Fold these 4 entries.
Entry 1:
Amino acid sequence: MLIDGHGRTVNYLRISVTERCNFRCQYCMPEKPFSWVPKENLLTFEELFLFVKVAIDGGVNKIRLTGGEPLLREDLDKFIKMISDYKPEIDLALTTNGYLLPEAAQRLKDAGLKRLNISLDSLKSDVAAKIAGKDVLAKVLKGIDKALEVGLKVKINMVPLKGINDDEILDLLDYCKAHNMKIRFIEYMENRHADQSLKGMHGKEILEKVKERHTIEALGREGASPSFNYALEDGTEFGLIDPHKHDFCENCNRIRLTAEGNLIPCLYFDEAMSIAESVKKGDIQGAADVLAQVLKDKPKENRWSEDNPNEEKEISSRAFYETGG
Ligand code: SAM
């Protein structure tokens, strides 16, 4: 079992396989970064897999591939198959914007992927285009249909933004209900890479919107998930991810790995250690030592909390597209 310095069990690894993205979402990567990580600095899937084995052997039983846009990385299905063949019972999931799913969904499923989280911030094509920086909605909806058709379990992520898509919370809830998918509303997390004019909706405001049409019952958190679950009067469930409350930090079970090999103990903090040197040499013990040190140093909690009004509510200088959100 992997235990961190605060006694928490860590069993969840998120891997950002690329920082590159085909969307320019206002809250994440509104403009193309000045430079991308050079291709030669990216770990190969074989190198990433060496670390994956160390993590799985240590006790990781849930892996999520993310980015950037993970479907931009060539041969992602081969990496999925490597992980799935090594430990078929692993909870193997992917977070994507869905744009490339119409072509990729079947391959991902065949390789052993089990679940997908798809970002869908609007059902209006002009609003979706405004948020993502290009006309994306039709292809994303097609991607969602395809993922469901091939039998992948799908959850939807929406980031409600004031004055942009805050009037679509109920519509997205209806859409997800009709497609038998769970939606999770994510509070916008302030960060220096986003469009600084954005204003996110607070968790309480999101719940107020839902209550305009529904009665809701609080169900609680599902294990160590940052999502707090609610049920509508007919039993339909939805989730709210509200990092500004940060009461999920005490159950945090995750670490993050970037495409360059930085192992990050917390989305909020800059601190990270690199596994690149170890995995490039095939040094399993070296990679395990880095993992042990990162677990020891994992911070107690993030600093988005409203209990800390003087703290800057920001994440590390690292962008979401680098760490995978
Ligand atoms: N490209 C993929 C996608 O769009 O889902 C995966 C990467 S994206 C960084 C992962 C998740 O982070 C998405 O659900 C996105 O909505 C969320 N995200 C990115 N920036 C965010 C922010 N500033 N606040 C809240 N969520 C954010």
Entry 2:
Amino acid sequence: MKGKVVNIQSHIVQTQNLHPDATGTLTNLLWDLIMAVKIIAREVRRAGLADILGSIGQANVHGDDVKKLDQFAQERLEEQLAMNGHLCCMASEERTEMIPIPREYNRGKYVFLFDPLDGSSNIDVNISIGTIFSVLKKVTPGEDGRLEDCLQPGLQQVAAGYVIYGSSVMLVYTLGHGVHGFTLDPTIGSFLLSHPDIRIPAKGKTYSINEGNAGAWDAGTAKYVQWLKQKDPASNRPYSLRYVGTLVADVHRTLINGGIFMYPASPKPKLRLLYEASPLAMVAEQAGGMATTGKERVLDIVPTELHQKVPLVVGSTEDVARYQDFFLGGDGPQKQAKGKSER
Ligand code: FDP
């Protein structure tokens, strides 16, 4: 129906209704997340002011001391998600150990993994930052979550997504039935469906990588990036370089416009499997894209520790498959091209 406005709450309910055995717990958990995210978004908007207020020793509107944003985001998500009995445990990029649910709250069947404020080095220069989340089902017996509940491969995720605090605030999520994007309408305080069923183009024309590390790349990555820079209008080359340095922003652009984001194995992997690579890989695959380390599918990796770092190459299927080919030492592009320009 033209003009129909769908907010995120009703969208989640409709998706949950696809599962006749759903109890509504996941829906409620996501509602808690949305509440936390709106509060973080408000604080992000005031970040510049918070510095001014902080410097003159004032508290924020709630009487809290002004805190660093990443610490604020961590606490907000942790508190909001723990209190309604949906979770058995949490883990976050910001905490060394697994986060138990405080004794005063009930336990539930889900595990919540998150990066509260991704791209935090960009906060001070007013560039987009984000929150990334992943939801798993508890697999061990008993009420309290254990490490094994967190250390599950990405394929087991029941929900994943991210929030981008940019020129507008967007929440993008998947429950395994496609990827949907919502934009926060600040006048009514609701996330409204703005990007239904996001499909990543099969091929793009931008690449995203920290070129400063070029001297330390493995041979496959170096050859691939070199190939992207060669002129061949028929295959959109040279590709354009775009690198924000906030993972969420770089992946979001890649999701919408197509192309490829790479944080490769060399000089060393930086991105965390549980809080960054796995959830973004699920989003990419659900949108028809691909995510690899160069030699294996990200969603297949069985984590061995909470803060494990992995290479991440994610984006349009044709682009990522071609990267993988270069990484594995293949000369596939030349073979496929057979002397002709490639599409
Ligand atoms: P940041 O260090 O600012 O928190 O994982 C963290 C991250 O940002 C990602 O958001 C970003 O993609 C990446 O690091 C940038 O790393 P480089 O500075 O090494 O390129």
Entry 3:
Amino acid sequence: MDARHEASLRKLLQKLACRASLNRRMELTLESAVTQVKGLGPTRAAVLAERGITTIGHLLSYLPFRYEDRIHFTRIAELVPGQPATVEARVESSSLVRFAGRRHAMFHLRVKDSTGQLHLKFFHSAYLNGKFKAGQALVLHGKVTVDPNRPMRMEMINPEYELLDATGDASDSTEVGRIVPVYEAIGEISSRMLRRYIFFAIQNFRGEIIDPLAADILQRYGFPSRRDAIFSVHFPESDADVAALNEFRSPAQARMIFEEFFLYQLGIALRRQSEQRRAGIPMRVREEKVREAVKKILPFKPTAAQKRVLAEIAADLERATPMSRLLEGDVGSGKTIVALEAAAIAIENGYQTALMAPTEILAVQHYLSARRVFAPARYSVELLVSGMKPSEKAEALERVASGAAQFVTGTHALIEEAVQFAKLGLVIIDEQHRFGVLQRKRLAEKGAAPHTLVMTATPIPRTLALTLYGDLDLSVIDEMPPGRTPVETQWSEEKSLTGVWEFVRREIASGRQAYIIYPVVEESKQELKAATAEYERLAKNVFPRLRVGLLHGRMRSEEKDEIMEEFRAGKIQILVATTVVEVGVDVRNATVMVIEHADRFGLAQLHQLRGRIGRGAHKSHCILVAPQKVTEEARARLETLVATADGFKIAEEDLKLRGPGEFFGTRQHGDVAFQIAHPLRDHKLLDLARGEAFALVENAARAAELEKLKQFLGSEWQNKFRLASVG
Ligand code: ADP
Ligand code: MG
């Protein structure tokens, strides 16, 4: 047998084997295990399982975040450095290059088409050696670069490739000749592997995909069925608009986004409906005695916004259904006093109020200001934090249980089992974004349907808040108390620190105080300056004549209290701290904040930190210390902060930079877990979906439709949306 004959026979055999495997196709359904997918073994299945992906249904719900056009081929002579391109070529030669002393090898491949030659380099890819035969046809996709040592030589580093069979047919390819989906890698499982698995799953899918959207909704918005949408979100038709896909505007994507919002809003609508059927505690608000009490405790003239918001809260407290209200107001807008006024109403009605704060420092601060504010009314104020002495704590618990304590503030310690209230009528959560939904709920469960007020300094645009936290009523304080001077913010480099310290000295000489913030408590491998070490250095070498204090989360509670108290009293002039001061801390005389490694903090976090200054009549300054050369995102954060102090603008920017998942603290708290939907980008679909969901729930005539939907969604729906609301 001559060599040519042998080769063609082998090819024939290969084809036959291929046919046979086609005939042995899997019959996959949504419930099939992922291990049914060709090439997906137990090790990788375990990696996927960690992400909750165990079935084909889960796998198909893992959606691409980007698409690449690999339909339009470019000839080698027409390649442009810096641009991605798809090339059809033949193998010329290959070689494996090992570098002395290095473990990994680089695989070189030289290919050509009728117009030129292209060099490919694959790092860590010894296994490719011998895989490519001269003359073999293949399609490549990657970014074109120029070899720095040989400027005339075009190359691609680690391109995607697909070997073509003798006929040059790539129709079954997942890599090229189509619009290719790009997935976020899961551990060691690359986008490319996921693409193959999902392609296999779709090719072999024989199951049913029920559509939760009613036919008339599909028709109204021109949406494809769920099945069609899922398939084409993964592998779009070759004539699809790639730009639209990358902006998540394709009909299939719009449908998936709408569906997510719709189901989410359905959860909210149902929850709201059942909430409104519960019996709450109607309180007397208009009575002279109550009005007098509320007026008596006011330490200053409230702003118009504070008045309006209190009126909204008071109207809720009067009602026979429990209040669930979100109070939104930028850092320093004066939410606390509103909360205390609401508490006064509850207390005058004979009920206890609980105020939960995310940190001990903040709880203590609330305790102190409640004592001050409530002094004229003689309400008894209690503090519950975990750092208390057991004997003290036992006594406090006793007063809470007997009802002697009328206003109770504290940290998570409030939701411990041992805490029992005699008559809890109002629950207030400060800085709600710091709590999980369950923690918030647990506090409310310590009373019989108490009114709930959650407060946040993360101002989200009103429409967005309404649609996302749609089962909460919303009050917004959109006005700052008078007498504030805006904070001036600048971005400085490390080399100007001497000047910065000089500035701090001057401010302190004129009677002010300063914060200096570090990202970590102790030195670590990250090479970040740490609060403890910098505190020593600053106190000894930089500010030897000033009183410098240190505050961080790892200190004991009493120590923290002491330091905070001394700072409040002006005994400590410079407070070196970590982000423990991020929320709520209110010391008006502090006018300078220096934040080192400012590029390492999130935007919202920086805004919160900066909110600690600019609280009094004196001009305040925030100095962000970071190198000029930072990542693009860090630059965007710092520039936003320098440009504006408007919390709403900052929140919107933050939402854009981080995406809604992180923004709303999804991962930690399970609040909003969208796969593909993005509330800001897709707000129009959000509005439509909300309208449809509420219309369905409110229309008694459509009860059967709703019931069917609930059944279809079953436990999955429960899991996904049980935690969908705040409070
Ligand atoms: P936040 O909304 O960030 O919780 P706070 O409630 O801590 O803000 O209020 C910030 C500061 O403004 C506090 O020192 C508070 O006493 C003061 N403040 C609040 N409302 C007024 C007002 N109407 N007039 C003057 N000062 C006010
Ligand atoms: Mg506050």
Entry 4:
Amino acid sequence: MKQGAELAGLTQQDLVSFVETLGEPAYRGRQIFAALQHRRLRSFDEMTDLPKELRARLSEVARPATLTVESRYLSADGTRRYLMKTHDGFPVETVFIPEERRDTICFSSQSGCPLQCTFCLTAQLGLLRSLTPGEIVEQIVIALNDAYGVGVQPPRGTNLVGMGAGEPFLNFDSLLHALRVMADSHGLHIVPNRVTISTAGIVPRILELANVSDRPHLAISLAAPTDELRNQLMPINKRWPLEDLLNACKEFEKTLKPNERVTFEYVMLEGINDGEEHARQLANLLNRHGLKAKMNLIPHNPADPLPYRPSTDETVDRFKDILESKGIHVYVRRPRGRDIFAACGQLAARQGTPMNRVEITSIGA
Ligand code: SAH
């Protein structure tokens, strides 16, 4: 594989500096930024507004794209899952979720994941490696090009969620860098206010994010209302237990705008964490910390080697009622893309069933 600068992860300013090292004027950097991020081109050959000699020179010292799409899966509900590979052979998964009012792209921050949450299939991969800023940005470019055509403006807005494979807060600098690249109005123009990043609870990074001015929304994966149960389901809890985590959330909440809320996610595992007592403990935990939170209940997405079943609808409703009676805002999340291993906790580089496999025709990757 040819080495060289990964241009997809550079800000406009970085690109200007980069072309200046080649003895080119600043406007060429802006041109290349627009080609990559606004026109969403993935090869120098397509950048026909650049002189041929410059394109030849660039291809010697830089790479406009590094991810390749291995396969694409289309769910009965319209969700698309992309299984991609990095230049050095690691899997990267991205999910495009069409919704009535806007689309959501769920991106990965790492290949695999170092956390060992027992209910999540990604955990079984272990950490392969953290993704670069360019690899994060490219996921969004590839998904948008496939959904709408190369460079076509999405008709509805695009929301991003950092809820794919990996722990985003263990790849914090690359993540923030990628978000800065994507926010540029001369490029993808997806501003942090349209982005939600989910963490299993890396407390120091939550506190650090509270001080970032242009920051995304924060979601916390809880999965249990007591340390005893959370230690079992999410071993990261042994490092940062609930008390530390919720104190950090409270600090974060102090910096929110009046109507903003921290989101909590609670995967519902039948007979494990879905009892009435769990609901009461959960409500008390949030209320004791004075958190004005929003709770997303996620029915467990089953996957072969995982020893859990999703809670029944009745149990979920009962759980929701108890939380609501204690003043918590609750939403039950509908699973999307379960049939193609695209739903929460199902990203493990699965090759899927041939029936759902859609041949790649339109992806310039
Ligand atoms: N590591 C980060 C980012 C991943 S977000 C984090 O943990 O927040 C993925 C979300 O899906 C998390 O809220 C996680 O708790 C949830 N999840 C994991 N496995 C799941 C499963 N099998 N069914 C439903 N939700 C699951």
